[in-house]
Design goal:
The chain is 39% helix and 20% strand. It has 270 residues and is of the alpha+beta class. It has two domains: 18-107, Phosphorylase Kinase, domain 1, CATH 3.30.200.20; 112-268, Transferase(Phosphotransferase), domain 1 (Orthogonal Bundle). A six-stranded antiparallel β-sheet has the order 1-2-3-4-6-5, with helices on one face. Strands 7-9-10 form a three-stranded antiparallel β-sheet. It has a two-stranded antiparallel ribbon with strand order 8-11. The longest helix has 20 residues, at 127-146. The termini are far apart.
């Protein structure tokens, strides 16, 4: 581990303190509470005093604002959100910079994070429920890919549940291929080390991991020795085939439509 990592953590602790409830951002957004944080940003639940509605406001961490690459990443996230209009993705409402730093405003997702649903509420997903959940998520990923955006971080903490449907949040690690980034001088700063196909397969692999995770919510360990998931889980061969291809164990999928077709087959077999 780098010697500088713990030092950075200490600096972040003192410099990146969240703004207090009641503080007004841009003379418009009154902070209600901190919703969450990551190594990249802080997200607040706020009241939009002009429109009298709740919103989510993301702030680039103060320790990141001195670096061109970090600001470029933040601007790239804004640029991607501007292109999107899908029920499974938050809508961008506004972006601005001021004396408190760089911010953007999204619709507030009135729901629960999947971490809370699974780890605190102990919700269980049987085979059909897991497949239906992943199908809805796959449709949203397909929408992103049609806009040449690859999420790159499809994990349980980055998924909300709104009216029992998944909503993908946090595009902080997402990558876009649009020419818009060139126009905003972001491409030279944010060069990709991966090909478009590699990024697509990364998202497919994440979908496989998520499906496997949901299927394990019903698992009751019967053996002391850890076994491969193919032996621990009692799955129909159509679900096993789907997982193996998503995870790259068998021939990888070439498109979202191909994945959706196999999900539908797996659901029909249950």
């Amino acid at each position: 581990m780098s010697l500088f990592r713990p030092i950075r953590k200490v600096i972040q602790f003192f410099v990146d303190k969240s703004l207090a409830p009641g503080v007004h951002i841009d003379n418009r957004y009154q902070i209600i509470k901190l919703l969450g944080s990551s190594s990249f940003g802080l997200v607040y639940k706020c009241k939009d005093l002009q429109k009298n509605q709740m919103v989510a406001v993301k702030q680039l961490r103060p320790t990141k604002q001195k670096f061109k690459k970090e600001v470029a990443l933040f601007n790239r996230e804004i640029c991607m959100l501007e292109q999107l209009n899908h029920k499974a993705l938050p809508k961008l409402l506004h972006s601005f910079s001021g004396n408190l730093g760089h911010f953007y405003v999204m619709e507030y997702i009135d729901g629960k994070n999947m971490e809370e649903v699974i780890f605190e509420e102990k919700r269980v997903y049987d085979g059909k429920a897991a497949l239906e959940f992943i199908r809805a998520l796959t449709e949203a990923v397909g929408y992103l890919h049609r806009h040449e955006i690859y999420h790159g971080d499809l994990r349980i903490p980055n998924i909300m549940l709104r009216e029992e449907k998944p909503v993908i949040i946090d595009l902080g690690l997402a990558y876009g291929e649009k020419e818009d980034f060139v126009a905003r001088n972001l491409s030279s700063i944010l060069k990709s080390k991966k090909t478009q196909e590699e990024r697509k397969q990364d998202d497919y692999h994440d979908l496989g991991d998520l499906l496997l995770f949901l299927l394990y919510t019903t698992f009751e360990k019967k053996h002391k020795k850890a076994l491969p998931w193919t032996e621990e889980l009692q799955l129909h061969h159509s679900t096993t085939n789907l997982l193996k291809r998503l995870l790259g164990i068998d021939v990888p999928y070439s498109s979202i439509n191909e994945i959706l077709e196999d999900i539908d087959v797996a659901i029909e077999k249950l």
